[in-house]
Amino acid sequence: MSGGDRLILGVETSCDDTGVALVTASGEILANVVASQGLLHDRYGGVVPEVAARRHLEVIDAVASDAFERAGVTPADVDLVAATQGPGLIGALLVGFSWAKAFASARRLPFVAVDHLHGHVVASTLEDEPIEAPFLVLVASGGHTFLAWVEDPARYEVVGETLDDAAGEAFDKGARLLGLPYPGGPHLDRLARSGDASAFSFPRARPGRLDFSFSGLKTALLYTVRELGEERTRERRADLAASYQRAIVDQLLARVARAVEEFGAERVALGGGVAANSELRERARQLAAELGVRLWTPPLALCTDNAAMIAGVARFVPARPYPDYLEIDAAARLERAAPVA
Ligand code: KG4
Ligand code: ZN
Asked: pLDDT digits over 44-93, tens only?
C-alpha cells in the first residue's frame, strides 16, 4: 500500500457468499476473501434465505479476520467502510450491512451504502489496467442481467435488461433439467465443452432494442428433455448443454454488439457470475476484435459476488460521515442509481 492511500473495507452478503475485502483508494486489492455457501444449498436446489442469513452470521467474523491477515493490515488501519445495502435477500443483507455499520460506528469512520449491481458495474475498474469511463458493461449474474452505459463510475445508466429470467438463472435452471448440481452454471459450462453446440436448435429471443429474454429458451429445453426421455437426455447431455449455452451466449453478445454500435463504445466490460462462462469470454474476445473495441473480462474472483467490487464503488461514491449512516437500513430492493449524496 502506498503512503497516504486510504484503506477501504468492503463487505458483501447479498446472497449466499460472505465477502470481506480490503482495497485501497487507488484501486489496489490487498485482500478479497469469499466464503461460498454453494454446497450448503445444493440439496435444496437453490438458496434458502434463512439458511444463508444464519451462515453469514456464523462466518463473517472469521472471513474478516482472514481478510485482515492476508492484507497485512489491522482494523485500526481502515479509513472507510463500504457494505452492500441491496438488492438481495433481506436477511442475508442485514447481517453484513449491520456488521459493517457496527465496525464503522465503533471507530467513527465514514460509511458508504453500496448498490450491489453498481459493484458488478465497476469490477473492471479494479484491475492492474483499470477500465476508464466512458464504457459499456454487460452484467449477467444469477439475479440480474442488464447492459449499462457508464459516463462516470459514480453512476450507471441501465440501457437494456432482461424481461424475465436472468442469464445465470437460465444457466442454473437449464443445468437442473440436465441433472447437474446447484449452482449449475459452471457445471453446464464444463459439460458443454465436450458437446456439439449445433446438435439442437434453441430459440434466440429478440425482445425490444437492448433487452433480453430467457424464459422461452428454458421452456424449449424442458420440452426437448421431455421428448427425449430420461435415458436419451443423459446420453445427449453434453450436446444439450452446448446447444443451450450457445443460445444464451448468442443472445447476450447480439445485444452487446448492438449497444456498442448505438453508443459508439470504445471500451466494453463483462461483469457478474455469468462472465465466468468460458464460451462467453472467448466469443466476447472475438466480437471485440471484430468491432475494434477493447474488452475487459475481470478475473473470475471479481466476476462472481465479492466484496472487492463493493469497496470499489466507495472509490467513486461520496461517503456519509459518522453518525449519519446509523439510520440507513439494508433493503431487498433499491431505487435505481442508488448512490446518494
Ligand atoms: O454474480 P453472481 O456470483 O451472483 C449473483 O449476484 O447472482 O452470479 C452467480 C451466477 C449463477 O447463476 C451461476 O450459475 C453463474 O453465475 N455462473 C456461471 C458460471 N459461473 C457462475 N454461469 C455460466 N458459466 C459459468 N462458468
Ligand atoms: Zn451479484
From this structure: 666 777 777 888 889 999 999 999 999 999 999 999 999 999 999 999 99
How far apart, in whole angstroms, are the C-alpha atoms of residue 263 and residue 279? Answer: 25
Q: Supply the residue whose CA is at minimum distance from atom 22 of ligand 1.
A: 185
Lookup: cell for 209: 432494442
Are 70 and 136 found together in one domain?
no
Of the residues 17, 138, 141, 249, which should be mutated to test ligand 1's pocket, given the most ligand atoms within 8 Å of the CB? Answer: 141
276 close to ligand 1 (CB < 6 Angstrom) = yes
pLDDT tens by residue, 245-292 = 999 999 999 999 999 999 999 999 999 999 999 999 999 999 999 999
* Residue 258 vs residue 4, higher pLDDT: 258
- In whole angstroms, what is the distance from residue 215 CA to residue 254 CA? 17
CATH number at residue 241: 3.30.420.40
pTM exceeding 0.85: yes
Let me know the angle formed at the C-alpha of 202 by 200 and 203, rounded to the nearest 5 degrees: 160
| Whether residue 117 is found in the same domain as residue 168 | no
254: containing domain: 132-298
245 ligand 1 Cβ < 6 A: no
Q: Quote the CA–CA distance of 93 and 30 in Å, as a whole number.
A: 24
The answer on 43 and 84 residing in a single domain is yes
271 lines ligand 1 (CB under 6 A): no
Closest Cα to atom 14, ligand 1: which residue? 185
Q: Take atom 7 of ligand 1 and give the residue whose Cα is closest.
A: 142
Instruction: Give SS3 for 154.
Output: coil
Q: Looking at the 3D structure of the chain, how many domains does it have? A: 2
Q: Are residues 48 and 184 in the same domain?
A: no
Q: Cα dist. 235→71, 217, 220 in Å?
A: 48, 21, 18
In a domain, 116, yes or no: yes
